[in-house]
Design a protein that fits this description.
By secondary structure, the protein is of the alpha/beta class. The protein is built from ten helices and ten strands.
């Protein structure tokens, strides 16, 4: 972000596109660093999107191209078959005390997305998060730490990890499995987005590239290479291993407006206070 700003101040326009977390790409838009993608042909397609359209904002500056799923994750060595929790409320039982981890809402937005999605659906309230904070939950500064703890068996359950970031551990044979909660699965259809940089040197080529990446060939190419991405389109094969999949009976969708709200909640420390982290 700072590099793009510096280049623009110097009148040097090097980058064509910005690809990052949608909240960061939106910051670039608010700083006047992006322009609209226009009416990309792929965005006119009907009935192909798995959850919602990739167009995040009405002006067409932010185009999502990767989806993410936040199920519950278990270490299958510590949580035996038939003992998996099936409801978030079960996590407050004594048997799971000091066995749960989540990333810090101070440094990562992931737990805030789950907080907002479950609150909007009316399935979890603030009292759940207060009680979870008193339950000996282990807070990690980033998603990397909590995934490593789960893979190594330091904790039995991870509450806030994406399927795509869990994929490398599963590929390496870590005893990790996704579990679907009765309340639903938090899903972020536009977790990562593209934007065109203002005054970029190749705007038409950039649009062609984004249009290809959102098409069936581009989405399948990336899905095959990454191996851990929930398909954005329903005409793309899901190549994730079984341990990364859930049935998605009740998707709790985090839309673009909720990502903006998550930024506000993170800044104000709302979830951090509920979890008792202000101490």
């Amino acid at each position: 972000m700072e590099r793009i700003k510096s280049e623009h101040r110097a009148g040097k326009y090097i980058a064509d596109t910005l690809d990052s977390a949608i909240s960061l790409v939106n910051m670039a838009k608010e700083d006047g660093l992006t322009v609209s993608m226009g009416d990309l042909p792929v965005l006119r397609e009907k009935g192909v999107w798995a959850l919602i359209s990739p167009r995040a904002d009405p002006e067409g500056h932010l185009i999502g191209w990767r989806a993410g799923v936040y199920p519950l994750w278990i270490n299958t060595t510590l949580v035996k078959p038939g003992e998996e929790p099936r409801s978030y409320r079960e996590l407050l039982e004594p048997r799971w005390r000091e066995k749960i981890t989540l990333s810090s809402p101070v440094t990562t937005p992931d737990p805030i997305y789950k907080y907002l999605a479950t609150r909007k659906a009316g399935v979890l309230d603030d009292d759940f998060w207060r009680r979870l904070g008193l339950h000996g939950v282990k807070i990690g500064p980033s998603f990397r730490e909590i995934q490593l703890w789960l893979a190594q068996g330091q904790v039995a359950i991870s509450l806030t990890s994406l399927d795509s970031t869990m994929a490398p551990y599963v590929k390496q044979g870590a005893p990790i499995k996704a579990v679907e909660m009765a309340e639903g699965v938090t899903t972020m259809p536009l977790v990562v987005a593209f934007a065109l940089i203002k005054n970029g040197p190749h705007p038409n080529a950039a649009r062609v590239f984004v249009n290809w990446l959102l098409g069936p060939e581009g989405q399948q190419t990336y899905a095959d290479a990454a191996g851990g991405m929930y398909p954005l389109r329903n005409d793309v094969r899901d190549v994730r291993p079984p341990a990364l999949r859930v049935e998605m009976k009740k998707p709790l969708v985090v839309d673009f407006s909720m990502t903006l709200e998550a930024t506000k909640i993170q800044r104000e420390g709302t979830l951090a206070r509920l979890l008792g982290l202000e101490k």
